[in-house]
Design goal:
Shape: globular
Structural class: alpha/beta
Bound molecules: zinc ion
Strand order of the largest sheet: 6-7-8-9-10-11-12-13
Strand content: 15-25%
CATH architecture of the largest domain: Alpha-Beta Barrel
Number of helices: 13
Radius of gyration: 22 Å
Number of domains: 2
CATH class of the largest domain: Alpha Beta
CATH topology of the largest domain: TIM Barrel
Helix content: 25-40%
Distance between the termini: 64 Å
């Protein structure tokens, strides 16, 4: 059986029919439906690869009403989350994670990498819940789990990271910039990931302090040791406040090491810069220097309505719009960071509207790329491996204006 998507408009402005079969795009061209085929009319919709969320925190999502961040910054968020973590049980983790996951799915995201706190106040409870969620949704949405280990990583936290990878985490994680020994923390995380043969995704330099630059430490260590496994650096805020020459030097090393970078504008615009009431700096990484050096750039939502970021829809297009407004990326480049760039950062197979591609697609009611990102219509149809996994339709009734009175 083939699913025919009729009259789909693509990002390049062309219109076509698209046939999906056996989990992949089978045909791009005129539909040739036979009895038994599904036909979906996409007139008025733009069809693109589905979105990828490269950096979520589903274990903390949707807790803002329980966690008041007193200072509004990163350390305030970490402190209050630590205080309330003991109150989260398995059922609560699963329910919130699945609620957040459904939000993402309805907005067209079919792959999510989520960080999960392990060790310290969290133990392995959140990981066990997220492993259950990952398995339950397998086939409908790809969920991968990063073990976000407490610090200092030398000692117990290092053992926690190994335990988490043994108990189902897919990726090694941590926060070297918060560690008393940032350089040692980088090396320990990468070494443990190497032992397990898994990718690494580190919270990196989530600070406006320019003297904290573990991004360069990571790149140097990878280059010095010919490190072979995939490495992603998330946040990289302090790169954004370096001089242009430092941004260029570090970006070139990051490119040479083959790392990818995830920028997280929502949470970092919220958490960073509070100590600068005048000319408040933007908590963004150096997106232009990184792209200029050829680094794979992905963009994600990070925290969803919790102490780290109290608002947000779970919609990749919300993140993309911020990259245009606050990061000065072009519309197509911003969309690329939500799709192609994010897929590459996660080491996933590329997706395009072309025969042979995995059929992970989203249709959004939009006329073109500008309309897609500018209006971010909630009217979306989402396919995972060729199967329709969600459809949202919003209807608005408008009052009609009174007819103008024409004087004789
Ligand atoms: Zn994060």
């Amino acid at each position: 059986m083939t699913t025919w998507l009729r009259n789909a408009r693509l990002l390049d402005g062309s219109s076509t029919d698209v046939g999906l079969a056996d989990g992949a795009v089978a045909v791009v061209g005129p539909a040739a439906a036979v009895p038994g085929d599904d036909v979906v009319d996409l007139t008025g919709y733009l069809l693109t690869p589905s979105f990828v969320e490269p950096h979520a925190h589903l274990d903390k999502a949707l807790t803002v009403s329980r966690a008041h961040n007193l200072t509004g910054d990163l350390l305030g968020a970490i402190a209050v989350m630590s205080e309330i973590a003991g109150g989260f049980d398995h059922k609560d983790y699963v329910a919130r994670a699945e609620a957040a996951l459904r939000l993402h799915l309805a907005y067209g995201t079919t792959t999510i990498r989520t960080h999960v706190n392990v060790g310290g106040d969290f133990g392995m409870r959140a990981l066990a819940a997220l492993v259950e969620v990952r398995e339950r949704w397998r086939g409908l949405l790809d969920l991968e789990l990063v073990a976000l280990v407490a610090h200092p990583i030398r000692g117990q936290a290092g053992r926690d990271l190994r335990q988490a990878l043994a108990e189902g985490a897919d990726v090694a994680g941590g926060c070297p910039h918060l560690d008393p020994e940032p350089t040692a923390a980088v090396r320990i995380c990468l070494d443990i990931a190497g032992d397990f043969g898994v990718p690494t995704d580190l919270h990196t330099d989530e600070t406006l302090n320019p003297s904290m630059l573990t991004l360069e430490t990571m790149a140097d260590y990878m280059l010095d040791t010919a490190y072979e496994h995939a490495v992603t650096a998330s946040h990289c805020v302090s790169l954004g406040v370096q001089t242009p020459s430092v941004q260029r030097r570090v970006s070139e090393k990051v490119a040479a090491a083959g790392m990818s970078v995830v920028t997280l504008p929502q949470t970092n615009l919220y958490l960073q810069g509070r100590e600068h009431p005048t000319a408040t700096p933007r908590g963004l990484t150096a997106v232009h220097a990184l792209r200029g050096a050829g680094v794979t750039l992905a963009a994600g939502g990070d925290n969803l309505r919790d102490a780290f970021h109290p608002v947000g829809r779970g919609d990749a297009l919300e993140v993309g719009a911020l990259l245009v407004t606050a990061g000065h990326l072009g519309v197509r480049d911003a969309i690329d960071s939500l799709t192609t760039g994010a897929r590459a950062a996660l080491g996933r197979e590329p997706v395009s509207v072309a025969a042979g591609s995995p059929a992970d697609l989203v249709a959004v009611r939009a006329a073109d790329a500008n309309d897609l990102l500018g209006a971010a219509s909630p009217d979306r149809i989402v396919w995972k491996a060729g199967r329709q996994v969600s459809r949202t339709t919003v209807h608005t009734d408008y009052i009609s204006p009174s007819p103008l009175e024409v004087s004789a």
